[in-house]
Every structure is written in C-alpha cells, then in structure tokens.
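PROTEIN DATA CARD
Card holder: METL2 protein
Chain length: 389
Origin: Eurystomus gularis
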Amino acid sequence: SLNKMNFITRLSALCLRKCKMQQRHQSSRRPAVPLGSRILTDPSKVFEHNMWDHMQWSQEEEENAKKKAAENSLVKVQRKDQDKYEREAKILPEKRRDELKTEGRSSEHTKINSTNSFSHKNEMFEEGEKYWKKNRCGSTSVEGYVYNKKQAKCLTDNPQGKNCGEDLGRLESFPGSDATYRILEVGCGAGNSVFPILKVLCNTPGTFLYCCDFASGAVDLVKSHSSYNSAWCSAFVHDVCDDALPYPFPDEILDVILLVFVLSTIHPNRMQGVVNRLAKLLKPGGMLLFRDYGRYDTAQLRFKKGHCLSENFYVRGDGTRVYFFTKEEVWNMFNLAGLTEVQNLVDRRLQVNRKKKVKMQRVWIQSKFQKPLLLSLNNPEETTGRHCY
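Structure generated from the sequence above:
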C-alpha cells in the first residue's frame, strides 16, 4: 500500500542519518535529501556548531584529497602481514571487546564510543513507531506469490502442497517464524542499536529482530542484557564472509536489512559475495539500508604510509580494516546482487572541534536498495502490486 511505502521511506531515512556529523557549504541551496538541515552560509560562524550538512567541495579541495590518498598509499603493507590481517580479521580488537564487556555489566544501556556508532538507528525506531503501528502489514505472505525457493518449488510442482509438508514444517520452525515483519541488523556489536529497537518491537505484535556479529563476546553481551527477549529477538554469531554458514532462518523472509559500517571492514574481493548472500535473505520488496565510509573521508586522508593494504583499503593500528567507497562502487555491487536503487548518494559534512578550532571533512555513502517484487505464479508476465510495500 501507499501508506506502507511512505512508512518504509521515512523509516529508512531516519535509519540512515548519521548522528550530528558536519560539513561545509558554499551555497544556501539545500539538497532535497534527508541528510540534515544545518547549512553553513556564513564561514565566520563555522565554529558555532559541531557540524554542518551538505558540503560542496571545490576542485582544489578534491585534488588535494586525491593527492593525500595517493601519498599514503605509496607504501603497501607486506603480503605476509596482509594475509595475517585477513586470517585474523576482527570487527573489534580484543582490548575494545573487554572494555565493552565491562561497560555492558555496569550499565543498563551499553554504550559504544567508536567512530562506527550509528545512533540514528535508535532514533529511527523511536520516531517511526507510530508509522510502524499504523501501516504495518498483517502478514508477510500473499496468496499466489512466492517468497521462498523451497516453497516456490513445492507450489509450482504441487499447488496443493501435497508431500511437501515436511519441508514447509522445517521452514516454519525457525526463530521469528510467526512474525509478520522481520529486520536483520548485521554487525550489531554489543547492542547499542538493538535495545532501542527492541523497545519498539516488544510493543508491536508481529515484529521480530535478528542481529548478528562476528564477535561472540558482543553477541553474549546482547543476550545477557535485561531487555533481551527471544520472543522478539534472535542474536547470533555469524561470519558474513562464510557463504557456507547458514542463517538461522530461511531465505527471502526479511523486510529490512541494516548494513551500517560493516562492509568496509571486509576485504574488497569478498564484498560482492557478502552482498549477494544478504540480498537472498530479503523478501520481494524488502529493503537493504546501507551506510559506510566514502572516498576521501578525513579518516582515509589521515592514514600514514605503510598502512595501505590495497587501493583505498587500509589497516588501523588496532588491526581493524577499513575501505572507502564511491557511490558508483556501491551501486555496482548491489545491482549485481539483483537489487534496485532507491537512494544512493554521497553525504559530505564538516565536523568541527570547536575547542581546538579544527575542521574535518567527512564523507559517507548512504544508500537504499530494494529487492524487486516477484511475478505471480498464475501470470508470470504480471508483476504483483499486492506486496506490502
């Protein structure tokens, strides 16, 4: 329905706004995108706020950024060390995991103070709750349309479903099988986004949250939290790079996937496989919400020589890795995975340290990609308009 589409649009817009980041602007014209409204029109007031939205770079600034990135990429990490970082790839270093564990035990709401935090995922659910309750579909299934490959084969070969009750029974026995709206957060960490989301879900019948992380310690923290309840959440350890590792639910059942500051930690050669696998988890019409580092972000330009693994791919001092995307690269990956673009843009902001009088140009890529609706079994030439979205 139209209401459902409006809800998803607002939900994803809220989800993909970074918490109060900043940048510079040389024009008063505001882009028609939901990425903030603080526009710098008077350069003398730059230190009056911590951030400025919708910055435009001059050609000189662009060239200087390219030059810095080229300089810090001259000396590459040795091959043996690159192999080591790949084998020991981490989302968080061991020391930071221990800190998170301590914080999780001492505070009801675990806090993660890292550059990859994304607090507007929390705001998304707080502000979007009324839209969710008003517009949420009553069921994920639509008679005559296919949402799962096993079900598709079953219904195509045998429309009455005879002799395939065992397979369908297994499909219905997974966590969240009774839900009508399902979300997956990839790279949930210790749960700084999970629990605000659960606060909404526990009051919204028919909804369910899956959340996974590479670090078992982080998942343990989520499960041990007093707000965790398996009735509306399933937290699990998962390596998204392992194509052979199954998810604890069938393909094509998710309404929304949050992929925020996760893909950049993965080796560029493995990114496409990760995106392909996640795309299979979405139901027709489902949405993948993406946000990550953009090319020539301040974080990229600050790397010293000897930290570059490959082009635009670096290793930090703590052993974690980070890639810096262009929106063309992002579009290409999701397009190859069979998803269609709803939004794909560069978010440039000016982040300001008012005490030290330091200005930092931040760049992120923010995107929404949707899985196309499936065709009717009864009429393969007709695309269904009956899906919730």
